[in-house]
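In the design runs reported in the main text, the only information available to the sequence generator was the tokenized backbone. The following block is the verbatim input for one such run; it is reproduced so that readers can re-run the procedure and compare outputs position by position.
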């Protein structure tokens, strides 16, 4: 799996500003957040990385965009066996994480929870400071992690 190749595929059909609030800089911060969390949650890091680049890859606007998570999951499914070679279980986890990442859920598989927290920790970019009550993992609720991620999200 080559992340750079996947990013190029995503960029080719990306409907929004590549450097906008849901673009490549957001993908990178979500990936960094996820990696920091995965070391403490036991999440599957390769799925956390993939979530970071896929979860907003099929947005059609920067506001309310119901269905963008499902469309991201469909993209994952379309690339499985071609640019992606995930086990069935891992593909299902990634698709679930993408589909439901904006639904406010907090319960689930540790890898899915880590994905959701990695994204939520980047809310500062849109003027929202993440609160522990809306996060899934103990790692993401750690005040040091919250502050680190928030500072990064507002200094874009």
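Verbatim output:
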């Amino acid at each position: 799996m080559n992340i750079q190749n996947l990013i190029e595929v995503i960029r080719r059909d990306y409907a929004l500003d590549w450097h906008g609030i849901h673009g490549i800089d957001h993908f990178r911060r979500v990936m960094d957040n996820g990696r920091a969390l995965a070391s403490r949650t036991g999440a599957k890091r390769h799925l956390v990385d993939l979530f970071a680049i896929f979860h907003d890859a099929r947005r059609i606007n920067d506001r309310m965009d119901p269905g963008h998570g499902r469309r991201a999951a469909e993209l994952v499914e379309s690339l499985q066996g071609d640019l992606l070679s995930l086990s069935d279980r891992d593909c299902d986890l990634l698709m679930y994480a993408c589909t439901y990442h904006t639904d406010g859920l907090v319960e689930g598989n540790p890898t899915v929870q880590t994905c959701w927290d990695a994204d939520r920790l980047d809310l500062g970019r849109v003027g929202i400071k993440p609160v522990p009550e809306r996060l899934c993992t103990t790692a993401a609720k750690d005040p040091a992690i919250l502050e680190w991620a928030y500072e990064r999200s507002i200094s874009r």
